[in-house]
Each structure stands twice: as C-alpha cells, then as structure tokens.
C-alpha cells in the first residue's frame, strides 16, 4: 500500500498554482497575495499630533505647574487634514487635533487635559517633554519598506495594511473553483423523504463547505446515481467550471463503483490503496482536454472528511498560492484507550483535544470522539483534532502520548 506522504506528493504533482490576477481590495479578501507590497511613502507621511491639544515648544512650557501655569497665545487652529499652518513663532502655540500635521517650530504637544482649553490664549498646567504626543513621519513604516510578502492570506489586517499604503487593488492568486460531485444510487437529497435502502446525501455538502472554508469557490454539483453514462455526462459538464473536481464514492471494489471506470476513460486517473484508516481507497489524476485535476474520495462519510484534510487541503493550498504546511500538530495524552488499529495502516482518530495546564511538556489531552467507524459521522461535529496512530501500532493504553493534528477552526 502507498504511504500517506507519497499520496500527498502525487496529488501535488497534478495540481498547479495559477497565474496571478489583479483584484480590487475588497474582492481580494480571503485570497493569497501574489506580489510583495511596499510602502510608496512613509507612514505616517508627516509628523503629526497623537492627541487633541496644543502644539508648543517644550522650552516655552518647561516651567508650567498647577501652581504656576504658563499662558501662551494661540495663533492657529489645526484640524486633521489641514496643512495650511506651516510654522508657529517662539512663545506661541497652535491648537491641534489628533492626526493633524505638526507645524514647524513646535516640538511637543500638550494634551488639552493639561490646560484650561483656551481658544485665544491657553493656560498650561504641566510641562511637556520634547517629542511628547508627537507621531513622527515613518514611525510606522519607512518609505520603501515591504509591508506584506507574497503567500500571505489576505484577511482584515492585511486589507488594513494594503489600504493604509494606498493600494486599491492587488495581485493575488484567483480562488480555485472546486466542483464537488457525489455518486451513489442510494442517495437522496436532504429535505426529501427516504425510502427503504436509501440515505440522505451528506458528503457533497461537507466537501463543498470545507473547500469554501479553505478559501476556494466551492460548487456543489449534487449527486448522481451509479450509472456510468450519468457519471460521465455530469463529470464532463463539471469540467467546464472547475479548477479541481472532487468526487465522493464509487472508488472501492464494488460492482457498481463506477467512478473508476468512467474517469479512466476520460483521462489519466490512478486508483490506489493508501495505508490509512479511514480513507484507504483513493484516486487522483487529470481529466478532459484541459487536464483538470480530479481527486476521488471514498464514499464513507468519515473517510471523505479525513481524506479531505489529509489529501485535498494540500492541493487547495498549492492551487491557492499558499506555501505547503501540515495541519498544526501537538503532543497529547490519551484519555481513553485505542482498542484496535489496523497494522500497516496509519489511523486518524477524530478526537476532542483540550489544553491541559497540568500536563507539563505534554500540554494537551485527547479524548477520541464517539465511535470511530468510517460510517459513524456523529462524533465528527465535536472533534477538533485527529489523533495519529502509527502504522505499526495496533493498540494504545490510556495515558499514551500521541500526536494530534488540529483541525481547521470553525
Ligand atoms: N471488498 C471491499 N469492499 C470495500 C473495501 C475494500 O477494500 N474491499 N473498502 C472499503 C472502504 S475502506 C471504503 S472507505 C469504502 C469506499 O467505498 P466507495 O468509495 O466505493 O463508496 P461507495 O461504495 O459509493 O459508498 C460507501 C459508503 O458510503 C456511503 N456514501 C457514499 N456516498 C455518500 C454521500 N454522498 N453521502 C453520504 N453517504 C455516502 C454509502 O452509502 C456507503 O455506505 O468501501 C469499503 N468496501
Ligand atoms: O478506508 Mo475506509 O475509509 O475504512 O472506510
Ligand atoms: Mg463502493
């Protein structure tokens, strides 16, 4: 059987990072930056006041105390955005607001709270050190400095930085369009009644939303039955709209597992067994004239979920322009035993990971969440981690220290 690592690297070989596009700032939210961004001007661009108060020469108010305040004439009023006051003479001051340009001649700002708030003259009760309440030009960013590097995901903080350096649009990698198609004759749309032998379809909903949470455009193509004709027609149609097609179901040994036969006809897709539990039957390749990458996941719901995190996420990262990165991994102490894990396959058990302040160098506990069968979905919602049981390990007592992969936060 093939290793998990080999399967990830095989999948990464069939997907590629797209050419960057220019997007308006708000549309760029959630995408990955494709260019280094530098500040064209210093930030702040000019010396300015950090407080509402009076721009003074520190020397003029050096003797001010509550008992003997210093009174100065107010020769100008400087709101934010007003650069008309170029300088103040010695022995005078200007009323100034937060963010307003500091006039030449002034070297300190006295907050209004230290004064009587006068308009024509002001009485200052406290001395200000030179530089008090002044934000110097370039004290945030010097001119020409790189403020963002390529490969970062653009969230609100990055948007703030981009806007603050004057960018209205940026070069980013387009969000991958991920089309999800489930297969299975037994499937029924949720909301419709189910008959004997039928179940409600869930994988395409899970996979579509997981792709969206990973920053992609996710399209649920719904599901098709197990007729080769139907699967073929639907996959062909999906290809026109996809940078990646994810299928669920129909990849194991069953007589009606048609995904295999259909995709082999449409392109170069390999179907293999990966040494993992759950998620053993896997496929990947490219299909159609445009060689659209396809990843075929097993139909068992938990297998599809775990496979998404192990095999699809790395592909989505590459296609999004992100650097490769594993799920965050911590060491945790098991709160319940692992009774049996298949020899030769690495198990991923969904678990509840908790911080353990008393744990010393093992700072987490992990409690396997619910029943662990590939069809047993119910424990998934409470799980926030996958506990890794290595290939050669078949059981683990309570208290064993294990590796736990943290699932993306919701
Ligand atoms: N003889 C063998 N049988 C099976 C093997 C094997 O090696 N030899 N592997 C087992 C393993 S492991 C898995 S995992 C599954 C994979 O099956 P398929 O990918 O072929 O998926 P299906 O047969 O279509 O369905 C499996 C299971 O999952 C349910 N399912 C499928 N799609 C959905 C969906 N969209 N929403 C909810 N549930 C879904 C389906 O009803 C089946 O119960 O094969 C084992 N068998
Ligand atoms: O490998 Mo399957 O995913 O055990 O159910
Ligand atoms: Mg099957």
List keywords for this structure.
4 domains, elongated, Molybdenum Cofactor Biosythetic Enzyme, Chain A, alpha/beta, Molybdopterin biosynthesis moea protein, domain 2, single chain, binds ligand LQZAQKY5, six-stranded mixed sheet, Molybdopterin biosynthesis moeA protein, domain 3, binds molybdate ion, binds magnesium ion
Would you mind describing this structure in some detail?
There is one protein chain. The protein has 410 residues and is of the alpha/beta class. The chain folds into 4 domains: 4-16 and 175-320, Molybdenum Cofactor Biosythetic Enzyme, Chain A (3-Layer(aba) Sandwich); 21-39 and 143-173, Alpha-Beta Complex (Molybdopterin biosynthesis moea protein, domain 2), CATH 3.90.105.10; 48-135, Molybdopterin biosynthesis moeA protein, domain 3 (Beta Complex), CATH 2.170.190.11; 329-406, MoeA, C-terminal, domain IV (Beta-clip, Beta Barrel). Helices cover 19% and strands 30% of the residues. The chain has helices spanning 4-14, 25-28, 156-164, 203-213, 228-239, 258-266, 301-320, and strands at residues 21-24, 32-33, 37-38, 48-49, 53-56, 70-78, 93-96, 108-111, 121-124, 134-135, 146-148, 169-173, 177-183, 187-188, 199-200, 217-224, 244-248, 267-273, 276-277, 281-287, 292-297, 329-334, 346-355, 364-368, 385-389, 401-406. The strands form 7 sheets. The chain has a 6-stranded mixed beta sheet, with helices on both faces. Strands 8-5-7-6-9 form a 5-stranded mixed beta sheet, with no helix packed on it. A 5-stranded mixed beta barrel has the order 22-24-23-25-26. A hairpin with a 4-residue loop joins strand 20 (281-287) and strand 21 (292-297). Helix 1 (4-14) packs across helix 7 (301-320). The protein is elongated and about 95 Å long. The structure holds ligand LQZAQKY5, molybdate ion and magnesium ion. Residues 277-280, 298, 300, 303, 374 line the site of molybdate ion.
């Amino acid at each position: 059987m093939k290793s998990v690592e080999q399967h990830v690297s095989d999948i990464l070989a069939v997907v590629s990072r797209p050419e960057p596009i220019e997007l308006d700032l708000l549309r760029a939210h959630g995408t990955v930056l494709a260019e280094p961004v530098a500040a064209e001007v210093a930030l702040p661009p000019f010396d300015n006041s950090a407080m509402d108060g009076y721009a003074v020469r520190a020397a003029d108010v050096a003797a001010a105390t509550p008992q003997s305040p210093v009174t100065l004439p107010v020769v100008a009023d400087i709101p934010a955005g007003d650069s008309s006051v170029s300088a103040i003479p010695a022995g005078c001051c200007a009323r100034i607001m937060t963010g307003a340009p500091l006039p030449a001649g002034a070297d300190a700002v006295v907050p209004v709270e230290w004064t009587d708030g006068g308009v024509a003259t002001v009485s200052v009760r406290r001395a200000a050190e030179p530089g008090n309440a002044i934000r110097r030009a370039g004290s945030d960013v010097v001119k020409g400095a790189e403020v963002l590097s390529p490969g970062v995901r653009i969230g609100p903080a990055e948007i703030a930085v981009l806007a603050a350096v004057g960018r209205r649009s940026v070069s980013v990698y387009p969000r991958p369009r991920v089309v999800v198609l489930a297969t299975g004759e037994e499937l029924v749309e949720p909301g419709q009644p189910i008959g004997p032998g039928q179940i409600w379809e869930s994988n395409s909903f899970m996979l579509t939303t997981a792709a969206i949470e990973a920053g992609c455009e996710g399209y649920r193509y719904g599901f098709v039955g197990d007729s080769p004709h139907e699967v073929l027609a639907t996959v062909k149609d999906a290809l026109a709209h996809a940078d990646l097609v994810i299928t669920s179901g129909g990849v194991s040994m069953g007589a009606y597992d048609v995904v295999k036969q259909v995709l082999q006809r449409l392109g170069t897709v390999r179907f293999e067994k990966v040494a993992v539990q759950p998620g053993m039957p896997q496929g990947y390749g490219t299909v159609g004239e445009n060689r659209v990458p396809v990843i075929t996941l097993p139909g068992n719901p938990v297998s599809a979920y775990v496979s998404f995190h192990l095999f699809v996420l790395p592909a989505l990262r590459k296609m999004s322009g992100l650097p490769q990165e594993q799920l965050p991994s911590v060491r945790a102490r098991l709160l319940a035993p692992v009774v049996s894990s298949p020899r030769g396959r690495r198990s991923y058990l969904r678990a509840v990971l908790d911080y353990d302040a008393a744990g010393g160098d093992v700072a987490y506990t992990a409690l396997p969440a619910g029943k662990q069968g590939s069809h047993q979905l119910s424990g998934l919602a409470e799980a926030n981690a996958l506990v890794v049981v290595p290939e050669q390990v078949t059981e683990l007592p309570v208290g064993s220290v294990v590796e736990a992969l943290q699932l993306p936060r919701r």
